[in-house]
Design brief:
Jelly Rolls; five-stranded antiparallel β-sheet; 6 helices; 2 domains; Arc Repressor Mutant, subunit A; elongated; 35% helix
Length: 217
């Protein structure tokens, strides 16, 4: 599938006010951004939307390793001279993503201390989120992991909305994100609906009350 649009730009959209440069491209829901094993010569910055990162090794089932939203970088391992993509990146919903060539970013990091500090801060935050995700997979029940995924997708902790409607997500896709079976996801979603944590009409509507599934008020 083709990218529907792209343009060169130098908007100051980085959270610290640093101009990233690069190309801005629009992706449709479920559109591939890059695939595991492809050459890695650029990193990416999400301006709008969300991205799912997944990895597959030794013919085992695909595992979701990251769910990212606006303000997150991904593909940054290219800066550490990893020649190939270590995972697959797919747009979770219609997304606007900035592509920054590796050589350009390295040049910016060498020239600007502000850019270096800002990027390091973002990457450290991404690392923390990744570790939290792994810890959640290892220590939480499948039901709690599903609640975490839905809340993460809705970004309820960031915007405080009364409810956020997600794009259409199949039970199979949610099962892949959570690391469980489709039938279990279906059962958990039914339980969430009965308790009023979510509702479904033209997509999944996630309510803040879903946090009660995690023991939060």
């Amino acid at each position: 599938m083709k990218r529907v649009s792209h343009k060169a730009t130098h908007l100051r959209d980085f959270s610290s006010g640093v101009s990233l440069g690069g190309k801005v491209s629009c992706y449709q829901q479920n559109q591939s951004i890059y695939t595991q094993g492809e050459p890695a010569n650029a990193l990416f910055y999400i301006q709008r939307g969300g991205v799912r990162l997944s990895t597959r090794r030794h013919k085992r089932p695909t595992v979701v390793t990251g769910i990212l939203g606006a303000g997150d970088f991904f593909g940054e391992l290219c800066l550490a001279d990893y020649p190939l993509r270590m995972c697959t990146a797919v747009a979770l919903t219609a997304s606007t993503i900035r592509t920054i060539q590796k050589a350009k970013m390295l040049q910016m990091l060498r020239k600007s201390t502000k850019t270096s500090f800002s990027l390091v801060a973002h990457l450290l935050s991404n690392t923390k989120n990744y570790r939290d995700h792994v810890a959640d997979l290892l220590t939480s029940s499948a039901e709690h992991r599903l609640a975490h995924v839905l809340l993460r997708l809705a970004h309820l902790g960031k915007n405080g909305r009364t409810g956020v409607r997600l794009p259409h997500l199949t039970d199979t896709l949610l099962a892949e994100m959570v690391g469980t079976t489709r039938s279990r996801v279906n059962a958990f979603m039914m339980r969430f609906r009965k308790k009023g944590f979510i509702s479904e009409d033209r997509g999944i509507l996630v309510h803040p009350s879903l946090q009660k599934a995690l023991g939060r008020q």
